[in-house]
Amino acid sequence: AKVTFITQSNDEITVEAESGSVMQLAVENGIEGIDGDCGGVCSCATCHVYVAPEHQHKIGAASEIEQDMLSLDDNVNEYSRLCCQIDVSDEIDGIILTVAV
Ligand code: FES
């Protein structure tokens, strides 16, 4: 699946993978602002992204643990997700994610 990240410097970077999490994909490609400090276990929120409104349907709802973690983040909004909790799959092909501050 192809995933496009819009970074804090407004760069648009499209990367591709077949599996793994979106956070891993971002870290492997050095996407600025996605650190993945906790290794993807939903406990750091350094993988915070905003999912484009028109792409919300491509991913399921956030789990309760993810929502709890997000609620601790000052920059949370209705489009927020932790991208370590999003799996790379055909379903998300073409998704656009804005890296949160
Ligand atoms: Fe830590 Fe996603 S990498 S919450």
UniProtKB/TrEMBL annotation:
Domain of life: Bacteria
Gene3D superfamilies: 3.10.20.30
Assigned protein family: Belongs to the adrenodoxin/putidaredoxin family.
PROSITE patterns: 2FE2S_FER_2
Pfam families: Fer2
Ranges of residues in domain 2Fe-2S ferredoxin-type: 1-101
Protein name (database record): 2Fe-2S iron-sulfur cluster-binding protein
Coiled-coil spans in chain: none
Cofactor: [2Fe-2S] cluster
UniProt keyword list: 2Fe-2S, Iron, Iron-sulfur, Metal-binding, Ubiquinone
Organism: Colwellia maritima
Keyword Metal-binding in record: yes
InterPro entries on file: 2Fe-2S_ferredoxin-like_sf, 2Fe-2S_ferredoxin-type, Adrenodoxin-like, Beta-grasp_dom_sf
